[in-house]
UniProtKB/TrEMBL annotation:
GO terms for cellular component: plasma membrane. This is Oligopeptide transport system ATP-binding protein. CDD domains: ABC_NikE_OppD_transporters (cd03257). Its main location: membrane. It is found in: Cell membrane. GO terms for biological process: peptide transport. Residues 322-342 are annotated as: Disordered. One of its GO terms (molecular function) is ATP hydrolysis activity. Keywords: ATP-binding, Cell membrane, Membrane, Nucleotide-binding, Transport. Belongs to the ABC transporter superfamily.
Amino acid sequence: MADNILEVRDLKTHFHTNDGVVKAVDGVDLHVEKGEILAIVGESGCGKSVTSQSIMRLIGAKSSEKVSGEILYHGEDLLSKTEKEMRQIRGKDMSMVFQDPMTSLNPAYKVGTQIAEMPIIHEKKDKKSSWKRAIDMLTKVGIPSPEKRASQYPHQFSGGMRQRGVVAMSLACDPDLIIADEPTTALDVTIQAQVLDLLRKLRDDTGTAIMMITHDLGVVAELCDRVAVMYAGKIVEEGTVADIFDNPQHPYTQGLIHSLPKPGSRERLKPIEGQPPNLHNLPEGCRFQDRCPFVMDVCREKQPELVPADKQDHQAACWLMGEEENDGDGRTGESEEPEKTF
Ligand SMILES: Nc1ncnc2c1ncn2[C@@H]1O[C@H](COP(=O)(O)OP(=O)(O)OP(=O)(O)O)[C@@H](O)[C@H]1O
Ligand SMILES: [Mg+2]
């Protein structure tokens, strides 16, 4: 589609370890449209970070890391780019914000110098104009006294300010896609709200698309347009924020939503029982089967594919979606009526 900045098709990232193959990402399809904020949500260990690092080609260079599928950025497959070409794309066209700002900031250099480096490297700008750009970026992300701050080192910044500094760095070359991996998880709630406001404002002002990786559904509700729910290396549901919160279709998504506190309610929260499967040793069929309250025989035999749920762009990978929709390569053909409905 013309308006897709990023289209990921059948992405698989498998790690070959001494204990066997870890299928951290195992057939992920997703897309990010121009100017939208897409959330990738799911429990710890479901493959969110590995997905984003595979897209940025930060994983895949070692012989133990096997990445396959297609990662189309403006229609061009990043998996066929050389490392040199990727270095041009990273930071300039698409940039990444990590959970820990110190992953991106070097303690030995002034914050301004590190931001200014981006236009120097990617746009061959001179030092003076790049320094000015660094100050502009620090202003844009709401750092007070930006001239003074630009000359300081990361340890002189508070945690929230460092993360703003990283956002400033990611913006320095006006990327059209930012991949943010838990950018607010390490921050206290007030600073978290400020960083979320900042990201929303950036998207509104500049049209930069954001892929927001988080396990926090509050962040999703507040910031995002669409959501992809990930479970054990696969996307199990995808839809708008309203689809996911008001009409979740996959039992895993329903579990996530039910485990959220409701304002004013004293009801006990219902956590999802059990643990995700071992990625070394995945079960046949649906990966959620052992935790699913609706499990049927077919779920233990065949993997469900993503199919439209109540409308075309709200999709879920669950045998409860009905036989006629779920005719992916997994279906046996015999009819299995769900015991329970939503
Ligand atoms: N280099 C590696 N070698 C082997 N396994 C790995 C490697 N990197 C990640 N994994 C495994 O891949 C799985 C997915 O990890 P990932 O970091 O993507 O999870 P996540 O969804 O980002 O979780 P969190 O919310 O905790 O950040 C995990 O089981 C992890 O142990
Ligand atoms: Mg992660």
